[in-house]
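RETRY 2/3 - previous attempt timed out on the joint model. Re-submitting the same 529-residue input unchanged.
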Amino acid sequence: MSDVLRVEKPGLFTTVQDLGRLNAMSSGVQQGGAMDRFAHCAANLLVGNDEGAATLECTLSGPVLVALRPCLVAITGADFDLRVNGEPAPMWTSTFVGEGDKLSFAGRRWGARVYMAVAGGIAGDRWLGSLSTNLLAARGGMHGRLLAAGDVLAVSAERASPAISGRLLSPDHRPDYADHTLAAIAGPHVRRLGSDGRKAFFGGVFSVSRDADRMGYRLEGPMLDASGDELLSFGLVAGAVQVPRSGQPIILMADHGTAGGYPVVATVTSAAMPVAAQLLPGDELSFSEVSVEAALRLRAAQRAALDSLKS
Amino acid sequence: MPAPRSKTRVRTHPLGDSALLAELGTRLDTALNTRAIALAAALKKRRDVRQAIAGYASVTVHFDPDQVSHDALAAAIRRLASKRPPMAEPGRLHRIPVVYDGPDLEAVSAVLGLDVARIVEIHTRPIYRVFLVGFVPGWGYLGPLPEELELPRRQVPRTKVPAGSVAIAGRQTGIYPLATPGGWHLIGRTSVKLFLPDSDPPCLFRAGDRVKFFSSPG
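RETRY 2/3 succeeded.
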């Protein structure tokens, strides 16, 4: 391990994340991990890391970081107006920074979450098989907490593949973050909505309420009635759209509870989850119903875009 | 002589493109739960399965869609579920002290038409089974709750429930291990730690364990 970046300002809500701890879900521990897995994986691949290496997830505002030694970084996801030593710098691009160089963000342009990868992968506390920060348990990543001023980030390994500056993931290979139509597959309890409710769900316009975080987003919009017999609790997945008795649907995100008993009327496809991860309170969205086969085609296209970075 | 084939019908539903829900039944039933736990254990051994989580009477299966299709996995699940269920072993017994002074106790008392002492008496009567561990780290879904205490979940879930809260909903009861959102009715609290982050597994309860509550003075 070697120290690579010093945190001058942490930003509003910055955590260390990888692809989470799926294995721990049977103990009720949330999977966690990066909300926008596409941006997270792309950032890693751009700097020559495995896509499962840890990155920084910066929500709403970015940190100010100073390089303690030369390193290769890549910043992806939302656009917070990245600066290197105050000058605009390209995103979705691997970039060398020298000792003393300052990474900062001038202000949010769109989206919710920026990802920053460093060649070698960001080091942190490993808990139940993952470096992801679990704030509820106060474990993983930077000692189970948000980044704070004065923290020093290290890289966990010397990079395996040669680090190349100036590698780019072109816009046509990225998710269309501006299109807030989330492809979703009908869920186990969709029939509870009835045909009118189903039309209201797959076609209505919802907005993200203020009750939106890494666990999930409560939505506002058409009221849905998925009432019926109380369900026995069952294992949940990220992307599942629950309809509690209030009638306001909830999209489950990366830190969702592992089990629950509200009806699941749909599940957002894995290819649409990066778009969902970049939504903020007030943003409008809708759900379009797709088949499993169509979802897998979208997933494969996204996979191919990431694979184009492996060489 | 071949083993008798079970009549368990499994219904599978997609949960997105990389997971499915396999329902063994819709009743709160120890035998169904035992089968769900066994099915999850069998599925976890498959290379194309990334995680399998037993619910009360279901299994949620995370799979790799590059290795197996939804339909092929559903067929494999039906084959596995038709096998003779394993013998259920009695789980460990946990005795949990509870101070019955939860913020919803009065409302629960009013809705059910039972006085608080009666609610305490009914809640402490059974030895509950841990049907599943999930929702948040360390949470155990305990049941069956006696019918006299059956209530639907709250209409609007609370955004924050204090750690240690003892709660009921439907035919279930449980203890919030951490301060989290929750939609159950809060009837009491306990100081017993359910989430043990530095242990492996990081929780006191395991599926199949047994739990007995007793009333403790505040």
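DSSP finds four helices and 20 strands in chain A. Closing ticket.
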